[in-house]
Amino acid sequence: MQSRGFALVISAPSGTGKSTITKAVLEAESRCVQSVSATTRKPRAGEVDGKDYFFVSVDEFERKKRDGELIEWAEFAGNFYGTPRAFIEKAKAHGDIAVLDIDIQGAAQIRRTMPDAVTIFVAPPSLAALEQRLRARKTETEEAIARRLARVPSELAAAKYYDYLVWNDRVENAVQAILEVIRVESLRISRMDLEGDWLPKV
Amino acid sequence: MQSRGFALVISAPSGTGKSTITKAVLEAESRCVQSVSATTRKPRAGEVDGKDYFFVSVDEFERKKRDGELIEWAEFAGNFYGTPRAFIEKAKAHGDIAVLDIDIQGAAQIRRTMPDAVTIFVAPPSLAALEQRLRARKTETEEAIARRLARVPSELAAAKYYDYLVWNDRVENAVQAILEVIRVESLRISRMDLEGDWLPKV
């Protein structure tokens, strides 16, 4: 029984370890493909169009937005970023799982524009653990850390809109839980075609 | 994060091995409890009220039906059988999973009366395998087997209304898939209370 794939949205408060977890899930499950965003940002050295990003002009980005070709979009540091629906739909038709590592605003847009997306909120074991991880990075100023921590309450408040809660007490546990979500969501009858004689005769 | 439990409905065409699978799931997962039906049938030797069945009078059964105390009911061989909502709700409040091994008509009633129930359709690997298993039982007449086989197409047609499809190619695989469904459904945020300060401070 071939089942259609789906979009898998993964969000987490910053410092939770979302990027590490997402990378491990993509490596462990061959049906997972990382979603490629469209952006108006200029390519950096080594970035490949269609692999790292779809690099587009501001006009082209605006047109995509207007024509509903983006399931979510946002502006960061003067550049636009968005997720092309076509990429996700192609993955779904192939039975693949398009993985989107995305913030709560992006996830909220996707719930509206692609209601069959599966959404996972990854939570740190505690507020103290989250703060500790942010400091352990040693890549950010105290001010940047304070800014991230200030955002945490609103990020936690958004968790109730997601489908599943996965705790990142240990990266391996979080990855295993997400892989289980993927396997179980692949058993969903709403993504199968059970019309007619769907049971094999022999 | 304590999450509410749920009703787990398991249906399958007869001969698929549903009883074997359900028993193994109940043994493997300690949060699973078998649903106890109310019935107007007289107790048989050794049957315990409240454990095997809730034995009730026809009047009491009719009252339960009328008052919406049964999430599904049916008549077999002149006796009434029904699933008390109170038993299931108590299990759910405890964080338990109430397992119902039930036919497609019962499952259709439960989808209406308890929409948050999780429903699984167990399928045999093929029609030929199903027929072979029915004959291998050697407990039924050719006529009874023919009657069971005649029901299969309508049972298969009902599969599309279920949440999940689990193949019983091997009992162990089907049991593992159902245990995964239970684990993943337990991550569902709709069954958790994420209001307020839900993330532990330390």
Q: Round the Cα radius of gyration of chain A to an integer and report it.
A: 18 Å
Q: What structural category characterises the helix and strand content of chain A? A: alpha/beta
CATH topology of chain A: Rossmann fold
**Principal-axis shape of chain A:** globular
Strand content of chain A: 15-25%
Can you name the CATH architecture of chain A? 3-Layer(aba) Sandwich
Which protein chains make the most extensive interface, counting residues with beta carbons within 8 Å of the other chain's beta carbons? A-B, 36 and 37 residues
Number of strands of chain A: 9
Low-confidence spans of chain A: none
| Strand order within the widest beta sheet of chain A | 2-7-1-8-9
Let me know the largest β-sheet of chain A: 5 strands, parallel
N- and C-termini, Cα separation of chain A? 14 Å
Summed up, the domain count of chain A is 1
Helix content of chain A: 40-55%
Give the class-level CATH name of chain A: Alpha Beta
Mean of pLDDT of chain A = 95
CATH level 4 superfamily of chain A: P-loop containing nucleotide triphosphate hydrolases
